[in-house]
Amino acid sequence: MRGLSHAYGAKQALDDVSFDAEPGRFTALLGPNGAGKSTLFALLTRLFSAGTGSISVGGHDLNRAPRQALACMGIVFQQPTLDLDLTVRQNLAYFAALHGLSGRAARLRIDESLERLAMGERASEKVRALNGGHRRRTELARALVHSPRVLLCDEPTVGLDAASRAAIVSHVHALAAEGLTVLWATHLTDEVGPDDHLIILHRGRILRDGAARDITEDGDLSGTFLRLTDSGETSGIAGISREGHA
Amino acid sequence: MTWLVALRAIVQREALRFLHQRERFLAALVRPLVWLLVFAAGFRAALGLSIIPPYQTYITYETYIVPGLCGMILLFNGMQSSLSLVYDREMGSMRLLLTAPLPRWWLLFSKLLAATAISILQVYTFLLISGLYGIDHPPWGYVLVLPALLVAGLMLGSLGLALSSFVQQLENFAGVMNFVIFPMFFLSSALYPLWKMAESSPLLRDICAVNPFTHAVELIRFALHGQLNLPALGWTLLATAAFTALALWGYDPARGMSRPKG
């Protein structure tokens, strides 16, 4: 994405944001609450369009060819989006159909996707009967049904216990290693690995953009993140960072 | 082809959800039945009806309000399905729908059609019960009313859709229900014919005459008697087009349909 800005009335939510997420790499978008992550995801999923700037997904411009761009995206939303009264399989079938998959082809993809996340044996259970971790896994499986090239995850571990959180994080890292482009928004530094591509977003601006290990100071990403997003010094840091990484 | 696959899935989902919510089905039936069996029975004595088209003989008040109550089912369902849109949107499944790689108008239209199909099922159940109660219509009427219900259902559904795009919170929506459903229903020909309304207030009659719900009800009334009311059809279609345009504008990405908190 290039030069993305967006404002809600007088409040500037995103200010000239540009970055790339590469295939085969886990790109973590790290920012405290209110940094603009949700706005960024709303723009990426074309919930609404940006004031200025452009977004290209899989080579398709989101404004000029929205359907092609959306077709190569798999999305895990921050809010739960499963129908609780339908089974896991019915939820996935609904999504598959929205992407034009039906019949045998859809069944195969759904099975494959569920197996990949070890959810195969729960396929005919109602979502209501699943715990939070399994619901998230179902949503992740659903986002992969149409074999997207890009996976977008908007704080997908919110509300999960430590074990489920770790499981989802490692699943998605494995997916990235298989060649998927992953963009993962979070405010938790422990979800970012040293080899991941890290983007730190704060108050609608990018403070850092590079390999997580290069950004981390003294081997402590959490401390680095806190220092960077501490309100007192943000303006100065933003200026330096923008010269270095724009 | 892809479009039809998506349409089928959206209708199926709506039907499955509906099957899981039997209380919703019952509630939707109880409301018009109470009106028919209690309200109409009391009003029957108080209200004299003359012979007006499409009726060729004197009719009982119960017979008169059946089309209005069919309209009531469509009205409540249209608003309720858009209530579910507001709820869905907060729950996120509207976002799921809107990120499908299909034109947004088609996705919204599919959603509308699915909700209308469910409403029509309820209307037929209501007609069946009122038939058992002794209020029947010409056999052809039951067939001809189908397209009328479809048009009326789409009109009310698109109104709900338009409202849902402008209403951000569920609490506001309760207000909309009161300010939309009740005026729409009472200021229409559902309960009294317009000439009866004119006896007490010509102004009220005029308001009723421009209410699109009046035309939807008249369309259903004539269709149930095997007749086509062309002006009513025209008005209903016009209102559908207007509400749909409003809904599409409300859901246009460039305008922004919701404001995220983050």
Automatic annotation (TrEMBL), chain B:
- Name the InterPro entries for this protein: ABC2_TM, ABC2_TM_bact-type, ABC_2_transport, Alc_ABC_transptr_permease, T7SS_ABC-Transporter
Topology of the protein relative to the lipid bilayer: Multi-pass membrane protein
Query: Does Cell membrane appear among the keywords?
Result: yes
Q: Which UniProt keywords apply?
A: Cell membrane, Membrane, Transmembrane, Transmembrane helix, Transport
Gene Ontology CC annotation, any one: ATP-binding cassette (ABC) transporter complex
Annotated family: Belongs to the ABC-2 integral membrane protein family.
What PANTHER family does the record tag this protein with? TRANSPORT PERMEASE PROTEIN, TRANSPORT PERMEASE YVFS-RELATED
Protein name (record):
Transport permease protein
Report the source organism: Roseivivax halodurans JCM 10272
